[in-house]
Amino acid sequence: MEDYIKDYTNVNMEKKIKILDPTIREAGYLNGFKFSIEEVKSFIDISKRIGTDIIEIGHGLGPGNELPLHSHEEYVYEAKQHDESTSISIFGLAGLCKKTHLQSIIKSGLDVFRVGFVGFENTPFPFREALPLLEEAKKQGLFTCLNVLDTYRIKDKELIEVCNTVAELSPDVIYIVDSSGALTDKEIGKKIEILSEHSDSEIGYHGHDNLRLATYNSVYGAREGCTYLDATFMGMGRGAGNANLEVLIALLERYGMREADFVKLYEASKKVANLFNKDTEILEHATLGYYGVMDYIGDKLDKSDNRAYVEILSKLDKLDTPFIPEEEIKLCHENI
């Protein structure tokens, strides 16, 4: 199966696909943004173990909203003190986040700033309010992203105008943000085409899972030119949730777009499930799907040792038969 998928895929791999993990920011919608400093530190260790490139923390709507359990300055400072090599991101909403908020957070050691806007006129979060924040972040040497929220409702000519307006500010990434989970692959392809033609910025994709397309659309976006993808552990997030990080990493590896250690991924997801008090049903199904093993066989395997369990599945995946006899399952157990 693995060779078939990699042969089928024809992807330009000149640029590595980078993953931004906004689990803390998105999962905050589920607990009122009440993460302790220690929980954030623990999460950073887990997320970094599977190779995520940027970790986003803080309130879902960013600075200027009601405070989470700790200030954004505290979260960023403690995260950088815990692991200086971690690339930490904060999201700010145009019209809500002010330049003074951003300047204060930058002093705490911020690496990445993403500013989002919703529409142009008759909106509390207009595009024009994103520009001074983007300018300040660039001036301070941050990696910058412009998030076009609810891109589904942005007309093609408006997206072109956005590109032209921010050209001199040169954001590192312009994000297609499917806030309502409404975009299809063809619609995403059109947005990518416009951004590629009218901007020199790299392109990112942040999906929501209302139509259960967030993870698929992320992979599709990567194949069409996106180099930054957002995904959360177990797809946790606002509303219907986000692209599923475990499934996305597994698929990117299968398509030859990014390397992955599935043992580390499985172990990390288990730890996150424990941290957030979530069940691991999605992870279990994804793991079986990745190795092409049906659930009735998976139910017969010993899951007490994460590494051994994944190694057994890997061995079963290599068997050249549509039906796996009991003796083969037993033999795989014995050879671990």
Task: Describe what is shown at a glance.
The chain is an alpha/beta fold. It is 47% helix and 12% strand.
Please write out the topology:
Layout: H1 2-8, E1 18-21, H2 23-31, H3 37-49, E2 54-56, H4 72-82, E3 88-93, H5 99-106, E4 112-117, H6 127-139, E5 143-148, H7 156-166, E6 173-178, H8 185-198, E7 202-207, H9 214-224, E8 228-230, H10 245-254, H11 262-275, H12 281-291, H13 295-298, H14 306-317, H15 326-334
Parallel strand pairs: 1-2, 1-8, 2-3, 3-4, 4-5, 5-6, 6-7, 7-8
Helix pairs in contact: 3-4, 3-11, 5-6, 7-8, 8-9, 9-10, 10-12, 11-14, 14-15
Structural description of this entry:
The protein has 336 residues and is an alpha/beta fold. It has 15 helices and 8 strands. It has helices at 2-8, 23-31, 37-49, 72-82, 99-106, 127-139, 156-166, 185-198, 214-224, 245-254, 262-275, 281-291, 295-298, 306-317, 326-334; strands at 18-21, 54-56, 88-93, 112-117, 143-148, 173-178, 202-207, 228-230. Strands 1-2-3-4-5-6-7-8 form an 8-stranded parallel barrel, surrounded by 6 helices. Helix 7 (156-166) links the parallel strand 5 (143-148) and strand 6. Helix 5 (99-106) packs parallel to helix 6, helix 11 (262-275) packs across helix 14 (306-317) and helix 14 crosses helix 15. 43% of the residues are buried. Mean pLDDT is 90; it is low at 1-13.
